[in-house]
TrEMBL record, chain B:
<keyword id="KW-0812">Transmembrane</keyword>
<dbReference type="GO" id="GO:0017004">
    <property type="term" value="P:cytochrome complex assembly"/>
</dbReference>
<dbReference type="GO" id="GO:1903607">
    <property type="term" value="P:cytochrome c biosynthetic process"/>
</dbReference>
<feature type="coiled-coil region">
    <location>
        <begin position="34"/>
        <end position="61"/>
    </location>
</feature>
<dbReference type="GO" id="GO:0005886">
    <property type="term" value="C:plasma membrane"/>
</dbReference>
<dbReference type="GO" id="GO:0015886">
    <property type="term" value="P:heme transport"/>
</dbReference>
<dbReference type="Pfam" id="PF04995">
    <property type="entry name" value="CcmD"/>
</dbReference>
<keyword id="KW-0472">Membrane</keyword>
<keyword id="KW-1003">Cell membrane</keyword>
<keyword id="KW-1133">Transmembrane helix</keyword>
<keyword id="KW-0997">Cell inner membrane</keyword>
<keyword id="KW-0201">Cytochrome c-type biogenesis</keyword>
<keyword id="KW-0175">Coiled coil</keyword>
<feature type="transmembrane region" description="Helical">
    <location>
        <begin position="20"/>
        <end position="37"/>
    </location>
</feature>
<dbReference type="InterPro" id="IPR007078">
    <property type="entry name" value="Haem_export_protD_CcmD"/>
</dbReference>
<comment type="function">
    <text>Required for the export of heme to the periplasm for the biogenesis of c-type cytochromes.</text>
</comment>
<protein>
    <recommendedName>
        <fullName>Heme exporter protein D</fullName>
    </recommendedName>
</protein>
């Protein structure tokens, strides 16, 4: 457990110092959300209908683009190779790195999302659902995205390939997340959707680190 | 046959273009999978035979060179 | 013969090459006969569906393509798992051989589904649960193919694709279920699907024929591609040279 904390602390401090790692996804989120009214028109009613879907899709893209850099620096300075060679259990380390990454990308995205909800005319009744569904959902996105990042970390042209691999796997999260917001806007209870997202989260945390570990070994060995 | 004439089979009461287009594309896709595999095989055979011939010539050259 | 010697034999590319050479006619002939015969049967001899008319004849291509496309993904993931767990090289070759065939069949299922939709319910594309699921399956195949091509190292490509195929196979039930759920939430009342529930037994028999034929076709193509892959990877061995100069079979 102390190992997990140590890795998380180190990664988060490094990311804070660099700055761009946590600020770029946020800027992307804001900019792309601002493009939608320009693309479909400023009609508040229309925007309100589309807002849950737009916010979720853009947050998903921002989270995915940020995932690309998850293992990049560790791979480049060969510290990843050392971790793999050391034989220490991979599961907690991989999980710690992924969760640290979420704290610096997914968490800020969810915290900022109500602000963008206001810009896109999302009714106030949907704000909590948006924040909560993103907070749970982006963890799943980070964990699944980490599989793709681990598979492509050794390749030159990682970025676009990562999205081809990972986007189909994101679909259940998108469905339940945006549905939570829509249901909240309609005034119904959105706890079922949050519960489903939570189930996805537990499943992903239990299984994905195994795949991430295997993928990292493949990327380092080649 | 269910249809009364060949023309009826082709037109299928107006659904003909859709049905025949589907089957046309289907046959093309399936056949191209087969052709791609066959072509790869021929390409491999050619490549490996050329390599074998080259090897033989080199061996011959080495033998005659020794004499 | 004990299990392990049997297993060892299956892992030998040379043995598999010879065995598959003998097996292939038993897949190729049924594939051609059942597919072409079943198509002709379904196109010309079966009475039309009384609700959909003649457009339903596309079913004899559409259903086998989508079913076998799904089966091919599972075959690919299983081969990938065998490769990762037991380091069997042959499984990696099988996995690589399945991917393009499965992707082509998924494409075919999508296209025939769309063309069938136009005369039957008036539009080429509906975001219906089943169509959307097949589309996602197509995306999963494209991801695998893209990953395969990105690696220069064959061994790493095989392992990476195996991991991705397994992750995809674990996710497919979740994805399909979530898409079903999503569709049941947004189901438009105006579109009523006339599905296979009305199918008559005389319509079912050609379907079974083409379905079986399509499975044989998948097996045939996988064997052809795997044999090519074996020849390529073992190109420097004695037996491959013998095979190609006609000394062996």
């Amino acid at each position: 457990m102390s190992l997990v904390w140590a890795i998380m602390r180190r990664d988060m401090l490094a990311s804070l110092r660099r700055g761009s790692e946590w600020s770029n996804p946020l800027i992307f989120f804001v900019m792309v959300c601002a493009l939608f009214p320009l693309g479909i028109g400023p009609d508040p009613k229309q925007l309100a209908v589309l807002a849950p879907g737009i916010l979720w899709v853009v947050a998903l893209l921002a989270s995915m683009l940020a995932t690309d850099s998850l293992f990049r620096s560790d791979f480049d300075d060969a510290s990843l190779e050392q971790v793999l060679l050391s034989g220490s259990p991979l599961f907690p380390q991989v999980l710690a790195k992924t969760l640290a990454h979420w704290c610096m990308t997914g968490l800020p995205l969810s915290l900022v999302s109500p602000l963008l909800g206001v810009l896109l005319q999302l009714p106030t009744s949907g704000m909590w659902a948006l924040l909560l569904s993103l907070a749970i959902g982006t963890v799943v996105l980070s964990v699944i995205g980490a599989i793709g990042a681990a598979l492509t970390v050794g390749l030159r042209k990682g970025g676009l390939l990562l999205s081809l691999i990972v986007l189909p796997l994101y679909i259940p999260v998108l469905i339940f997340g945006s549905s939570a917001v829509q249901t909240a806007v309609e005034g119904a209870s959105y706890t079922p959707q949050l519960a489903l997202l939570g189930a996805l989260l537990l499943g992903a945390i239990a299984l994905a680190p195994l795949a991430i570990g295997a993928a990292l070994r493949i990327s380092v060995d080649q | 046959m269910y249809f009364e004439s060949f023309a009826a089979l082709i037109s299928m009461e107006g659904h003909g273009p859709y049905v025949w287009f589907s089957y046309g594309v289907g046959i093309v896709v399936l056949a191209s999978l087969l052709v791609a595999a066959r072509r790869r095989r021929a390409q491999l055979e050619q490549m490996l035979k050329a390599a074998a011939r080259r090897e033989q010539q080199q061996n011959k050259a080495a033998v005659t060179g020794e004499r | 013969m004990s299990f392990w010697t049997y297993f060892h034999k299956w892992g030998s590319p040379r043995w598999f090459y010879q065995f598959s050479g003998r097996l292939m006619p038993w897949l190729a002939i049924p594939a051609v006969v059942l597919l072409l015969g079943g198509f002709a049967w379904g196109l010309a001899f079966v009475p039309p569906d009384f609700k959909q008319g003649n457009s339903f004849r596309i079913i004899y291509l559409h259903v086998p393509a989508s079913a076998v496309a799904m089966g091919a993904y599972m075959l690919m993931a299983t081969a990938g798992a065998i490769h990762l767990i037991w380091r069997m090289k042959l499984a990696a070759m099988v996995m690589k051989s399945v991917a393009p065939v499965g992707a082509a069949l998924t494409f075919l299922a999508l296209l025939t589904g769309a063309v069938w939709g136009k005369p039957t319910w008036g539009t080429y594309w509906v975001w219906d649960a089943r169509i959307t699921s097949v589309l996602i399956l197509f995306f999963l195949y494209l991801g695998i193919l893209a990953l395969q091509q990105a690696f220069e190292n064959q061994e790493a490509a095989a392992k990476a694709c195996a991991v991705l195929a397994i992750v995809g196979a674990v996710n497919i039930p979740i994805i399909y279920w979530s898409v079903e759920w999503w569709y049941s939430l947004h189901q438009p009342a105006s579109i009523k699907f006339v599905g296979e529930s009305t199918i008559h037994s005389s319509m079912l028999r050609p379907l079974i024929a083409t379905l079986t034929g399509m499975y044989c076709f998948l097996g045939w193509m996988v064997l052809l591609n795997t044999r090519n892959e074996i020849l390529y990877r073992e190109r420097n061995t004695r037996w491959v040279k013998d095979v190609l100069t006609g000394a062996g079979s």
